[in-house]
Design brief:
The complex is a heterodimer.
Chain A (H helix, E strand, L loop, with lengths): L3 E12 L2 E13 L4 E5 L6 H6 L10 E9 L2 E2 L5 H7 L4 E4 L3 H4 L6 H13 L3 H14 L5 H4 L9 H13 L5 E5 L7 H18 L2 E6 L2 H7 L2 E6 L2 E7 H6 L4 H9 L47 E4 L2 E3 L9
Parallel strand pairs in A: 3-8, 3-9, 6-7, 7-8
Antiparallel strand pairs in A: 1-2, 1-4, 4-5, 9-10, 10-12, 11-12
Helix pairs in contact in A: 4-5, 5-7, 7-8
Chain B lengths: L3 E10 L2 E11 L4 E5 L6 H8 L7 E6 L2 E2 L5 H4 L6 E4 L13 H11 L5 H14 L16 H13 L5 E5 L7 H18 L2 E6 L2 H7 L2 E6 L2 E7 H6 L4 H9 L5 H6 L30 H5 L32
Parallel strand pairs in B: 3-8, 3-9, 6-7, 7-8
Antiparallel strand pairs in B: 1-2, 1-4, 4-5, 9-10
Classes of the chains: A alpha/beta, B alpha/beta.
């Protein structure tokens, strides 16, 4: 049985311009110890999908429907007070910006210990000792010294490791990492990705990795969901996805990478993402799609099985190649 | 003659040694990719070239003219020849100006054209960067990120400069948009023949666009050479580490690669390490690296310059083999 099951999740936000539909009926599952990548470009709904799990969305304006089950327990109906016990314990989050996510006025040791004291009821001393262990776990040298330092004394890569230490302090079942290496240099990125891999291998933590970087997906993910305009358009194990992308958008993303240049030119995806204010019953990608035909505007393609574990939402998917 | 010649450039911000003895040149119609990680000083080099900041010492020559310490007034006429494209297309366009006004600004500033003549040149330039004529009356907030970056390019190119300094111009863009802007830069460069100092952290972009590459670490160049050669046979352990760390979008290849995970962090540019600045993170460093600073030179006939004690006439270090 899967650890996390999201079924028909729809998330909208009330704005002055009307209801903006960020996520439109997405369903996905996450198994224990699995690293699942949610990928796509800005505004595709990948972060909103993931943040719906710990419900880290503005409560006043968010319109959420569908089901999110963690270990068989429905999260969408939980009151805030009970959800607070889940956040940071069963489900925790690593954000993109380690600079703004840490409190500059407290030592990193205090900030790690805070989670342990709150959720695990550890004493001050026990929490401090555990904080040192956690810093060691995420690969910070001299943890006993670092634990007493403030965020400004650490480099970007170190701060992100501290964020990960806080996130895994209570051995969460699900770790959500939102572009965790985007703000970091490549030589530092490799080390941080290794930390996630290591946590999965040692603690069996399941990870939802939100990223726009297909290189990172290829490096670390087991399975990937490609999102476009609020919907999943393709979903497959990573090897299969890169070897045989079926959806023209996935293929377009791969061909647009500078490393995929042919004769000094990159393949462009013409046009723009459709407005999130309307949602006609048609393929959202048809206006930009090289394979579009008459049927693409008559009805929205559903996510259907193309091969073992490989789903794509397209009436004209590419065949195995 | 080279369009840009930088000799032993030093720029210190107080104690911070952002650029610390850097020389490079950009030839006519050449694209030089200046690559480095955060804090390497690559953006400071670009700022010095535009004299957005005053160099501490060294010299910068633009088309033969020494601009290192020119006054603002003396610099003004030379600004026709060098323009900049910024990283953030949101903050580098004046939100109160229409697109037409933004792109026309260099024409007005330099007294080259006004009124209808300026309007016609703006229209032609917008067409060249792939923006429809009706965009002229729009404001920046009405445009997408990719469209804004096209406006930034139009503004930089309308005076047909000899040199364009582009500081991470596609880093804030999504892949699909980035592809079209990179294609556009390639086309424009071919049509107009300007030289370009392309500052970026993204190696794949450099490989696509640049004729030559210079790799920076802590305020200095550690290796430079033709793009194809640097990517095929990187000699400096830092260049090797950078190339091995950038993940490739192919799970089978990516998971087989031998990566060099560098220990520690980039040292502070306030107090750079003695000897070779990379020795604190270099998996191959030995005693001499800690004490003697390597010079950027080509130890081999017909090779390319590299600043590493381990590169000799008959030996190239292999950082992937270490540890």
């Amino acid at each position: 049985m899967s650890l996390l099951r999201i079924t028909d999740l729809t998330v909208g936000f009330d704005t002055d311009d009307g209801l903006v539909q960020a996520v439109k009926g997405i369903s996905l599952e996450l198994a224990e110890g699995e690293i699942l990548a949610l990928c796509g470009e800005s505004g595709c709904g990948k972060s909103v999908t993931a943040m719906s799990v710990p419900r880290l969305l503005p409560p006043e304006t968010t319109r959420l429907s569908g089901s999110i089950e963690l270990d068989g327990r429905e999260l969408t109906e939980l009151p805030e007070s009970q959800l607070r016990r889940i956040r940071g314990k069963d489900v925790s989050v690593v954000f993109q910006e380690p600079m703004t996510s840490l409190n500059p006025s407290f030592t990193v040791g205090y900030q790690i210990a805070e989670v342990l004291r709150r959720h695990e009821g550890l004493s001050r001393r026990a929490a401090r000792d555990r904080a040192v262990e956690l810093l060691e776990l995420v690969g910070i040298p001299l943890p006993a010294r670092r634990v007493k330092e403030y965020p400004h004394q650490l480099s970007g890569g170190m701060r992100q490791r501290v964020m990960i230490a806080i996130a895994v302090a209570c051995s969460p079942r699900v770790l959500i990492a939102d572009e965790p290496t985007t703000a970091l240099d490549v030589t530092i990125q490799a080390g941080v990705l290794d930390v996630f891999r290591d946590l999965r291998d040692r603690l069996g933590t399941a990870v939802i990795l939100i990223t726009h970087d297909l290189g990172v997906v290829a490096d670390i993910a087991d399975r990937a969901v490609v999102m476009y305009a609020g919907r999943a358009v393709e979903q497959a194990p990573v090897d299969e996805l890169f070897a045989r992308p079926r959806h023209p958008y996935t293929l377009g993303l791969m061909r647009a990478l500078p490393s995929a240049a042919v004769n000094g030119r990159l393949a462009e995806i013409p046009g723009l993402v459709p407005s999130p204010l309307s949602d006609p019953d048609e393929c959202a990608f048809h206006a930009r799609c090289p394979r579009a035909q008459a049927d693409c505007v008559l009805k929205r393609p559903e996510l259907v099985r193309q091969a073992d574990e490989h789903l794509a939402a397209c009436f004209h998917p590419g065949g195995p190649s | 003659m080279n369009v840009l010649e930088i000799n032993d450039l030093v720029k210190h911000y107080g104690q911070v040694r952002a650029v610390d003895g850097l020389s490079l040149s950009v030839g006519q119609g050449e694209v030089l990719g200046l690559v480095g990680e955060s804090g390497s000083g690559k953006s400071t080099v670009g700022k010095c070239v535009l004299r957005l900041t005053e160099p501490t010492s060294g010299s910068i020559r633009l088309g033969g003219a020494d601009i290192t310490h020119l006054s603002r007034r003396a610099m003004r006429p030379l600004r026709r020849d060098v323009h900049m494209v910024f990283q953030d297309p949101y903050s580098s366009l004046n939100p109160r100006f229409t697109i037409e006004r933004i792109v026309a600004e260099p024409l007005l500033r330099h007294g080259i054209a006004r009124g209808r003549a300026a309007g016609e040149r703006v229209a032609a330039m917008l067409e060249q960067v792939g923006l429809r004529p009706e965009m002229r009356s729009r404001y920046p907030h009405e445009l997408s990120g990719g469209q804004r970056q096209r406006v930034g390019l139009a503004r930089a190119l309308i005076l047909e400069p000899k040199l364009v300094v582009a500081d991470e111009p596609v880093s804030a863009l999504d892949v699909s948009v980035q592809a079209s802007v990179l294609n556009l830069i390639t086309d424009l460069q071919r049509e107009m023949g300007f030289s370009c100092l392309f500052v970026t952290h993204d190696l794949s972009v450099v490989e696509f666009l640049a004729d030559r590459v210079a790799v920076m670490y802590l305020g200095r160049i550690v290796e430079s050479g033709p793009t194809a050669r640097i990517f095929a046979e990187p000699r400096h352990p830092y260049t090797q580490a950078l190339l091995s760390a950038a993940p490739v979008a192919d799970p089978v290849r990516q998971r087989e690669r031998r990566r060099i995970v560098l220990g520690g962090d980039v040292p502070s540019p306030v107090d750079p390490p003695s000897g070779c600045r990379f020795h604190t993170r270099c998996p191959l460093a030995y005693e001499e690296c800690r004490t003697r600073e390597p010079v950027l030179a080509d130890p081999r006939e017909g090779g390319h310059p590299v600043a590493c004690h381990l590169v000799t006439a008959d030996h190239t270090p292999d950082a992937t083999a270490a540890r």
